[in-house]
Design a protein that fits this description.
Length: 157
């Protein structure tokens, strides 16, 4: 089993809203990441986009390619992803399951394609996030859990 580490947690309460970083959060099937606007499933609907994850290594590769001066380096959460993981390659296939902490399970739905908003943040950011799923993955919660920075991440299936 492949393992890694949870290095960051972030949420935003509304589209284009400010990002809040956290050290711990509850994640549920019905609400996704607590307090994040994308996670809640509306009655009668389903969601493939409850939680977004990005690899620290992919973020670092994108930043290196962007070649910004050190004083203009971008924090990972400007990507607007919910979870930053390190030491593990996220699956590049729908249906694979990622376990975080004791009980949280997230099923991969699809690639998180970077949008034009990335170029609003920094010109060229969208282009450096396009190769090899650098923009991360989107998933749906299949088992509730409380997670914290430092938790172990496992690729289960």
């Amino acid at each position: 089993m492949t393992t890694g580490r949870l290095d960051g947690i972030a949420r935003h309460a509304r589209p284009r809203g400010p990002i809040e970083t956290l050290s711990r959060v509850s994640v549920t099937i019905t609400d996704g990441l607590q307090g994040d606007y994308r996670g809640a499933i509306r009655p009668g609907k389903s969601s493939r986009r409850q939680v977004s994850l990005i690899e620290a290594e992919s973020w670092a590769a994108a930043q290196a390619e962007l070649a910004l001066p050190a004083d203009r380096a971008l924090e990972w959460h400007v990507r607007r992803a919910n979870l930053l993981v390190s030491g593990v390659r996220l699956p590049r296939a729908a249906g694979r399951v990622i376990a975080i902490g004791e009980t949280l399970r997230i099923e991969i739905a699809c690639e998180c394609d970077p949008c034009s908003r990335m170029d609003e943040i920094e010109p060229g950011l969208k282009a450096v996030l396009l190769p090899d799923w650098r923009g991360g993955v989107l998933g749906r919660v299949i088992s509730d859990g409380v997670i914290a920075i430092g938790d172990t991440i496992r690729i289960e299936t």
